[in-house]
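Quick start: load a record and inspect it. Here is Tol-Pal system protein TolB:
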Amino acid sequence: MKKMTSLTNALAAASLLASLNAYAQLKVEISGVGSNQIPVAVAAFADEGVAPAQVSAVIKADLERSGMFKIIDAGVINNPNDVDYSQWKSRGANAIVVGTVSKLANGGFDVRYKLHDTIKATKLSQMDQTTSVNEVRLSAHKIADDVYEKLTGVRGAFATRVAYVTQQGRQYRLVVADSDGENELPALISNEPIISPSWSPDGNKVAYVSFEQKKPVVYVQNLVTRARTVVANEKGSNSAPSWSPDGSKVAVALSKTGNTQIFIANADGSGIRRISNSSGIDTEPQFSADGQYIYFTSDRSGGPQIYRMSANGGEAKRVTFSGSYNISPRISSDGNTLAYISRRDGGNFQLFVLDLASGQEQRLSDTTSDESPSFAPNGKYLLYATVSGGRKSLAVVSVDGRVKQRLTIQAGNIKEPTWGPFMK
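Running the structure step on this input writes:
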């Protein structure tokens, strides 16, 4: 059965930053667009040159990457309060984004933005943010999130983070970055494999599997303090950690009783208890969004399929029936969509989604070696690992399959992705 994903060992900050130089930022390539793109004009923010990042450029890139918007360059509008609605309506814009950036005495910045509806000739939204030098890009992502939500009705996920594992030679590292691949920070590094990263609901911790003890052990790593806790170091294999929605528990797959089964532990590693009980292999547990159920992979029917059971254990019900090999379940935040990897068409591993209400299945990828799917916190996109040009890379696809992105690095392989939660 395919292995699932995680992370590992902390080193001194200087060593981490030095070794990161061998890697490049994520390169993002976009293809495909949404079925009904919304035309939006984005103006250069007045005086944005005083900031270390061009706010309007970040906003444009975010909106373009989503595939939901057709961007119209609005040039510079120095007075955000003086917008000619008829002019922008005649240029085909349904909305226009304007704003200003000013430097503060303390070295920070005041970033202000307004979103205008040109059709109704009214202001839709505004946001004023005081930000530090290091968080100008984050302010821009938050503005893009607001535009996305006001124009689509769905919360934006640009101001979130992703984590993934890079491998070059024998060196493995867990990297945390903004959702657009910028601001990469090496969180963990090891000469042993790092697999199965899983974000905590508050975005401050990651559970992972490290092989540094020459066997798989589950840890929880605090990304702020770098402190880490052993969650599972039982006899045999310890793998596939997944957080409960409230962050108090971690589901894991352990082989300490023989065949691998599903267990739940407190986030500090205490109180481990078994919840699955089959004669086969039960692994890759994932909590439902309400915390009531566990989705998992099991070969109890003869081949790997996805099942669901109560988070307290008990009877398991099979969920996937198409195809003979379905693994790596991930459930959307609204609980309506299941994503997974299925082996079809002569051995190709591809990304599928299943509408749990209708039972309708859809293949989202056209690659052949997919693994490790992860939903964006708004449920509208999926991040996954694949193989492109003979190298392991990442990809993003919208849940309707229309918008696709490919994410690569200059050196080495990139894999084991996980999309972080909405930030508080």
